[in-house]
Amino acid sequence: MSNEVARRDSNTLLIDDARITFRNFGGKPGQFNAAGQRNFHVLLPADVAAALEAQGFNVKYLRPREEGDIPQAHLKVNVKMDSNIPPKIFVITSKGRRQMTEDMMDMLDWADFAKIDLIFSRYKRDWPDGRTTVTAYLQTFFGTIHEDELELRYADVPELESAQNVLVWQESTPSDLEEIKLRELGEF
Asked: How far is it, in rounded angstroms, from Cα 117 to Cα 111?
């Protein structure tokens, strides 16, 4: 795994060149997710996984694909857009960067990222029954979009404000159609 992990302070962790999976930035309900819960999982190197487990994080492991492979560690990172301090999420293309708003989050579930850098913070909670849980919450996210040759070639072409400005649908009467045909034939 080529990512670099650095502790920023006792409550935050920076991961450069992160690999993520099980994306649900949109908060869609599913087998492992209640409606409105936004999250993703970040893949972890073994040493980082062990350190996070020692701090109480619920690190999970994917079954190896090939016999003899080491199980891949991953950690769920929550994306809480409705908190007092929502995460800062940016998408980068050759045109620049754009901060994502809550209504744009669905796009991240399908984006083809070339590189992701992120910071997550740790939240520790002591429960009345004696349990303690440690949860990861996204703080900052920079995702560079992988752009193909055509996207790069046409990156400088300005985008239109709305598709409605491109095509305007207008009902035509039979006499309007006849007039158009005659005009095209040069008889009008």
From this structure: 15
101, 81 Cβ separation under 8 angstroms: no
Q: How buried is residue 31: exposed, middle or buried, by Cβ count under 10 Å (0-12/13-18/19+)?
A: exposed
SS3 (DSSP) at 90: strand
Could you read off the pLDDT of 87-108 as tens digits, one per residue? 999 999 998 999 999 999 999 9
pLDDT band at 187 (very low <50, low <70, confident <90, very high): low
> How much is the pTM?
0.77
Question: Are the beta carbons of 76 and 41 closer than 8 angstroms?
Answer: yes
Other residues' Cβ atoms within 10 Å of the Cβ of residue 141: 23
Identify the sign of the CA torsion 83, 84, 87, 89. Answer: positive
d(CA 28, CA 34): 7
**CA dist., res. 33 & res. 55, Å (int):** 24
Reading phi first (left if > 0) and then psi (alpha if -120 to 50, else beta), residue 10 is in alpha
Structural domains in the chain? 4-159 (2.40.50)
Concatenate the DSSP letters of all residues of 118-168 into one string.
EEEEEEEEE-TTS-EEEEEEEEEEEEEEP--HHHHHTTTSPPPS-GGGT--
CA dihedral 72, 112, 109, 96 (to 10 degrees): 120
